[in-house]
Design goal:
The chain is of the alpha+beta class and 98 residues long. The chain has helices spanning 3-15, 22-37, 48-55, 60-72, and strands spanning 44-46, 76-79, 88-92. The protein has one domain: Arc Repressor Mutant, subunit A (Orthogonal Bundle). It is 51% helix and 12% strand. The protein has a three-stranded antiparallel beta sheet. This is Helix-turn-helix domain-containing protein.
Length: 98
């Protein structure tokens, strides 16, 4: 699936989901960019600091709340790393594919 089709479908899904706000969308788009840079392969290693910088989220609480909600809503699988030298892993759930 090309990026335009994927983005169009994703936008339609997220726009229709009343639980999603601008912060969820910003985080997902940042994760999507990382996924593309990773060759469209799951999992994607992420850094909280980098995602927060890209999305302009200043609060660690807001970041973790949105990541947790994206997980709970079925948009991602989140595998936290408690090692500061190893990033957490995210798997984008693309229309039900795990």
């Amino acid at each position: 699936m090309n990026n335009d089709v994927f983005f169009s479908k994703l936008f339609g899904i997220m726009a229709g989901d009343e639980r999603i706000n601008v912060w969820h969308f910003a985080i997902y788009m940042s994760l999507f960019q990382r996924w593309l840079a990773n060759g469209r392969v799951n999992p994607v290693s992420i850094s909280r600091r980098e995602i927060m910088r890209q999305t302009h989220i200043r609060s660690i609480v807001t970041y973790h709340k949105c990541i947790r909600q994206l997980r709970d809503f079925g948009y991602i699988i989140y595998e936290p790393s408690y090692n500061p030298f190893i990033g957490s892993c995210i798997r984008l759930l693309i229309f039900g594919n795990k």
